Structures are given as structure tokens and as C-alpha cells.
Amino acid sequence: MKVLQMIPEMESGGVERGTLELARHLGSHGHESVVISGGGKLVNALEACGTRHLAMPVGRKRLSSLLLLPKLRRLFIEEKPDILHLRSRVPAWLAFLAWRGMDPASRPRLVTTVHGFNSVNRYSEIMTCGERVICVSESIRDHVLNHYPRVAPEKLRVVHRGIDPAEYPHGYRPSPEWLDGFHREFPATRGKRLMTLPGRITRLKGHEDFARILKELAGDESLHGVIAGGAHPRKAAYLDEIKSLFAAEGLADRVTFTGGRSDLREILAISTLVLSLTTQPESFGRTTLEALGLGIPVAGYDHGGVGEQLGLLYPAGRIPPNKPAAAAPIVRGLLENPPPVPREHPFTLEAMLEGTLAVYRELLP
């Protein structure tokens, strides 16, 4: 089959990574893969796996983007893809308006993916316009059904995001060289049990709750907090605010801020416990799954995709959402006597990719 994916840019992020993973899978199975985007640093990786990239500013949220409609319609007619797969709202609006004006007998079949809990409005509803609508978790499916009553439930398909077990093998440990370098860079972590909160420095990630939990456990001298994630320049003031909060609680020497890292897998692997404290539900929660895949215990707020993962794989780690006071005893129990993390899980990259192709096949003769 021939699949054309549309995305605003190919820079970085979960949606972009999923686009690349699917393109690679299509090529390795003899299918033809095309991606339309505004460009970005992942374009080289796309082209390296045999995908054709067509540069077009389909992510610009402005009225002038409507001028792209005739060009997109001509492109769809010339390329003749079997599947048109849309993953983001602006490209979805442009592609849908172009697609709707084509001959229904010859136009591509339309698939959309709802990747997140977008604001509920007509603009976001475009992500439910596909002939099949992929939801990345049961929580996203419930969100769509609860807020968009015009959507036919029978066209929704849950295809969970996934990770590659070969990249996150159970029991993985980083090299002694890496570990020595990490301890030299962050000497306060040496000889400690690490409780890690991964993710970008934003207000939604629950850093304030992390401080409260660490304060409750401050009597344990062996425990050290790690906040593994970078801050966008626009979030610099919030980062200063969080550091001041830890200092005010007397925790300045009990927590390490690593900044943005390319070795998060290694940091997760040396952690005693990984936390997910997002104040709003996440659609999936990739870092928690990465930690569980490595065999590292996870405690997290029991909502969204993280709640789904914990309910299935590690129920001992479920924390009532947004209740840090309830978290401390749960975290303490996992630090003292953690149940083993299962070696196998269903949230694999292969299952995600094959599940997506199965959705495509439903629509094709």
C-alpha cells in the first residue's frame, strides 16, 4: 500500500517519533511511504529509511494556509496514496478540506490519530473526521466519546503507543563508564537511592507535589531526588521558582536537576523508583512505560494513560490523582518492599505498528 502522513514539522516529540517509526516500518515491509511536513531535523532519518519527504508549510495556523488547498488536492490526485493519515489539527483541517473536494471513488481512505487531550471545541473535533480514528489509549477513546457526540463509536480504534523492548530491555544497566561520568557530573547522587521525576520543566509535571513527597521522606538519608528534564527558555522563571521551593523546604541538597538529557534511559535504569505526577491526565505516558520496561518500579497518579499502564502492569504504584499526601505512604512502601515489575508487557512498538497497519487494511479492498 501507499501511505501519506501529514504532520506540522519533523523536529522532535512523540508525534514526530511515531511518524518516523511508522514510516520505517512501512518501508521495511515493502510499502510506499510519503510524509508532508514543514521540515525539521528528523527529515534526514525519514529519507534514510526510504520515505519521500515533501516540504510544505502545513503547520501554520493562519488563514493564508487555506491557499494550500488546491496544491494539496492536486498532490493527492497525482500521488494516489491508498491511505491519508493525519496526526495534528492544522494539517488535518487543510487535508480534510482538500480531500473532501475529491471524487469519493478515487480519493484515499482517511485515517486520523487523536494523540492527546486537546481543548474541546470545533477546531479540535477535526481529529475525529477520519473514516477510522485511532486513539492512543482507552483514556483518549473515552475523551472522544464523552466530548464529541457526533463521532460514531464504531469507527474508533485503540492502538496504544509502544516502546521497543530491545531498546528498553528488562534489567538493563548502563556501563560502568557512563555511571562514573554521571556521578562525577552529579556527585550528590553517588551512593544514593534515586527517586526520579522525568519530563520537561513545566507546571503540569507536578514538581511541587514531588517536593512535598520528598519532604515527607526526608528522614531517609539514603534517598535522593532527581528531576530529569530541561526547561524551555520561556520556562526559566518557573525553573527558578521550583528550585526556590526546594530550597525553602530545606531540600536543596536532596534533589538534583539534570537539565535536558539524551541519556534518560540510563537515568531511569539506575533509579530505585520513577514517579509520574502530572496534574492533568497524559494521553499515554511514554517515560513511565520506559521505566517499567526496564524493570524499574513506578508510582504515578492514577489517571490517563499512566493509570492504564499501572492498572495493568504495576497496580501497587497507583496514587489517587493530585493527592501528594496520599502518595508518601505508597512511595515509602515501594521503596521498602517493591513488588517485582513484570518482564513482559503488551505496549510494544511492534504491536503499535501492526495495529496501525491493521486499521489501514480495514479500509482497503
3D structure, described in words:
The structure is a single chain. The chain has 365 residues and is α/β, with parallel strands linked by helices. The chain folds into 2 domains: 2-162 and 348-363, Rossmann fold, CATH 3.40.50; 176-336, Rossmann fold (3-Layer(aba) Sandwich). Helices cover 39% and strands 16% of the residues. It has a 7-stranded parallel beta sheet with strand order 3-2-1-4-5-6-7, with helices on both faces. It is elongated. The mean pLDDT is 94.
CATH topology term of the largest domain: Rossmann fold
What is the CATH C level class of the largest domain, in words? Alpha Beta
Report the count of strand segments. 13
Low-confidence stretches: none
The tally of helices reads: 14
CATH superfamily membership of the largest domain: Glycogen Phosphorylase B
Query: How many structural domains in the coordinates?
Result: 2
Write a brief caption for the model:
The protein has 365 residues and is an alpha/beta fold. It has 14 helices and 13 strands.
Question: Any chance you could write out the topology, listing elements then pairs?
Answer:
Blueprint: E1 2-6, H1 14-28, E2 32-37, H2 43-48, E3 52-55, H3 69-79, E4 83-86, H4 89-100, E5 109-114, H5 122-125, E6 132-135, H6 138-147, E7 156-158, H7 176-185, E8 193-198, H8 207-216, E9 223-228, H9 236-248, E10 255-257, H10 264-269, E11 273-276, H11 286-294, E12 298-301, H12 304-313, E13 318-319, H13 324-336, H14 349-363
Parallel strand pairs: 1-2, 1-4, 2-3, 4-5, 5-6, 6-7, 8-9, 8-11, 9-10, 11-12, 12-13
